[in-house]
Amino acid sequence: MEQKVSALIVAAGRGLRAGGGIPKQYRKIAGEAVLTHATKALLAHPAVSNVQIVIHPDDVALYRQATKYLTLAPVVFGGNTRSESVLAGLKALENSKPDKVLIHDAARPLLSIQVIDNLLDALQTSKGAVPCLAVVDALWRGTEQVEASENRNNLWRAQTPQGFDFTTILNAHLSVIQPADDDVALVRQMGIKVAIVAGSEQNFKITTAEDFTRAEKELTNMDIRTGNGFDVHAFGEGEFVTLCGVQIPHTSGLNGHSDADVAMHAVTDAIFGALCEGDIGQWFPPSDAQWQGADSAIFLKKAMQRVQERDFNLTHIDCTIICETPKIGPHAEAMRLKMANITGLAVDRISVKATTSEKLGFTGRGEGIAAMANATLVKL
Ligand code: MG
Predict the structure, then answer these.
(1) Phi and psi dihedrals of 120, rounded to 5?
(2) What is the pLDDT of residues 212-271, one digit of tens each?
(3) What separation in Å is there between the alpha carbon of 337 and the centre of ligand 1?
(4) Neighbour count for residue 253 (Cβ, 10 Å)
(5) What are the structural domains, with CATH classification, of the chain?
(6) Measured in angstroms, how far is the CA atom of residue 245 from the centroid of ligand 1?
(7) What is the pTM for the complete model shown?
């Protein structure tokens, strides 16, 4: 059964240490409040169904400004301590009956889908999970001089969001054994194990003035590109067509120098387009006899190799095949799987769809097949 995941952002702190005259969660980076970035990061994950924010009563105007374009649960006010604020948020979420909750700091604006994925994976088998980074620097204890060196083995830097089974964390807050301003500590007092999952250096907490500069840089440096590709092949002699690597029996084949996989060519060109690295024809000249009848997977693999070499990540493919026949629908799933295999991209990030051209034009007259595609790349 699909599990309902809610998120809770604790934004009630005064956070004046970082300067700027207003609580740091409302200061702007890259044009939006820190809180807005943190909220959008949670809303962007397909599994997160609602976000509850807890604020300080003095910040209502700042909150309204920061969230005016977002769809959120009605805001609630926090208490004097972080624990009181978390409890206020959990109580507000109770009505929506979540199975899991991710409790996040407003001051971590660069949360990634990957970190949320890591948490949700762990929460399949654990009642608590926390994103962490291993301590890699040497650790020393002392005041003015070094007095001792500490063993850093098995030491972790904890991040948020911290994920919990909803009932478990609510009970931990309702029946506190030993007061602690830390959700993991409260849950562990109940004898519940909390899993460590991979966090991310990018998911840092804004604390100092320098952190604002760093976050601004990271957010404005984000390089996201969309490329498009278009291709046409004419029908000719043959008993099948190859589309996105899948052979479909047909009354004719497709003419072309390679296997004439018009759809995979459009996808490959979309990727080359996003990289601004020309097109298939430039990488694999038709004048070169070695590409005669070639499996077009070779072309797509080359594009993927370039994606890696340029430090990009392919995050989405959308391909539309335009023809009257053959019928694409029954094969679309196999095509998605085939391209997932070649690119290493998750199948739920690959779309293959089809349309006719209502009997108009060359595709309408059944003279050939056209395909267009978009590919999205994100700089690592
Ligand atoms: Mg072609």
Answers:
(1) -65, -35
(2) 999 998 888 778 999 999 999 999 999 999 999 999 999 999 999 899 999 999 999 999
(3) 21
(4) 17
(5) 5-219 (3.90.550.10), 224-379 (3.30.1330.50)
(6) 13
(7) 0.64
